[in-house]
Amino acid sequence: MEERKTILSGIQPSGELTLGSYLGAIKNWVSLSKDYNCYYCIVDMHAITVRQNPASLRRRTLEQLAQYIACGLDPEENTIFIQSHVSAHAELAWVLDCYTMFGELSRMTQFKDKSAKYADNINAGLFTYPALMAADILLYQADLVPVGIDQKQHIEITRDIAHRFNGIYGDVFKIPEPYIPEVGAKIMSLTSPENKMSKSDKDSGGCIYIMQKPEDIMRSFKRAVTDSETCVRYDPEKKPGISNLMTIYSVATGKSFDEIEKEFDGKGYGDFKPAVGEAVVEMLRPIREEAERILKDKAYLEKVYRNGAEKAAYTANKTLRKVYKKVGFVQK
Ligand code: ATP
Ligand code: LTN
Predict the structure, then answer these.
(1) Which residues in 175-202 are b (16+ Cβ under 10 Å) and which e?
(2) Could you tell me the pLDDT band of residue 20, with boundaries at 50, 70 and 90?
């Protein structure tokens, strides 16, 4: 039998999971989880590149774990773990730091954005963030990394680091590919559709959270920014707000843009906006209810993250040992 390909992805517990991260990443994680050998982590070490409140970080990490499972990731079938529980991530990140160039890190758009946003805390971790992310991916010899389009540059630098390392020491790392959805790779803010929907957005109306109450979701969709026309037509340049709502509706219902244009032909935004809201409410309802249920069972969550860390560490340590040997560290 051909060996199953490996998938790895992660999300920072730096805020509540959004509709953007669900449609851009987690939805693909779930569909890939049936056919691949999957590792999904909560990257708490990445989260501290921005100052976090310790109690909130701890709470959100467990909530995010419950939400992963509620979205449909079965912990028996997938390895679900917390990044800081597998020390190989920090260890490989240090080695990779020494094979990552200052110049290439300076070109990362996420670093430029975050250092502008958190100008009083431009720490070294924020700068070397991509080397830790490369370690996350390369430790598991991942073939595919399902993410939204904003993470493509980070997968590219991971590939460059891996090529550089392999070029010196032989085939140590598998070269990973990004796996980006055709529709939903970049969900935009509902209030400023020229910006990505982001959990750290200060304007909470622009963002939908997967645990949000139905009435709040409906309110945000009803208030979504559109344009001065009245027709539902896909044109991201001229109609960014409506095109974003069409994208959301398309992924939530499985309908194509053509079908959506026909469905709302002759109807105005007053019909379309609540229809998108309802589709999202129905898509998220079972996830929210299941996550609330799972979150009450702390013993179960603990079992999941302990098992996950044990399984992940087994694979990660194999790669780490190989790397240590290749670079010339004396074996224990
Ligand atoms: P932050 O505001 O802290 O930058 P974020 O809301 O952008 O966070 P991340 O935790 O960086 O979310 O992203 C988690 C995953 O979801 C990544 O794979 C990312 O590409 C994807 N993702 C995040 N936001 C969106 C979005 N608006 N559209 C599509 N995919 C997204
Ligand atoms: N950089 C990503 C989070 C992240 C990640 C990873 C994604 C950290 N490690 C490994 C995929 C694979 C972000 O900011 N969303």
Answers:
(1) ebebbbbeebbbbbbbbbbeebbbeebe
(2) very high
CATH code for the domain in which residue 60 is found: 3.40.50.620
CB atoms within 10 A of CB 332: 5
Q: Is the pTM of this model over 0.85?
A: yes
Residue 56 belongs to domain spanning: 6-180+298-327
197 CA to middle of ligand 1, Å? 8
Give the nearest ligand 1 atom to 150 CA.
20
Residues 217 and 157 in one domain: no
Rounded to an integer, what distance in angstroms lies between the CA atom of residue 169 and that of residue 184? 38
Whole-number pLDDT of residue 57: 98
pLDDT of residue 201: 77
Please tell me the predicted confidence (pLDDT) of residue 108. 96
Domain match, 170 and 30 both: yes
Distance from chain centroid for Cα 177: 15
Q: Given ligand 1 and candidates 14, 198, 200, 209, which is best to mutate, with the most ligand atoms within 8 Å of its CB?
A: 198
Separation of alpha carbons 69 and 290, rounded Å: 8
CA atoms within a 13 Å half-sphere pointing along the CA-CB vector of 23: 29
3-state SS assignment for residue 199 = coil
Catalytically active residues are: 114, 196, 199
Decide whether any atom of ligand 2 lies within 6 Å of the 37 Cβ. no
**CA of residue 69 to ligand 1 center, whole Å:** 18
Nearest Cα residue to 138 out of 181, 92, 98, 97: 92
Q: What is the signed CA dihedral for 206, 243, 196, 158, rounded to 10 degrees?
A: 150
Would you say residue 192 lies in a domain? Answer: no
Arithmetic mean of pLDDT over the chain: 96
Residue 166 C-alpha to ligand 2 middle, in angstroms?
Answer: 22
Ligand 2 site, residue 9, Cβ cutoff 6 A: yes
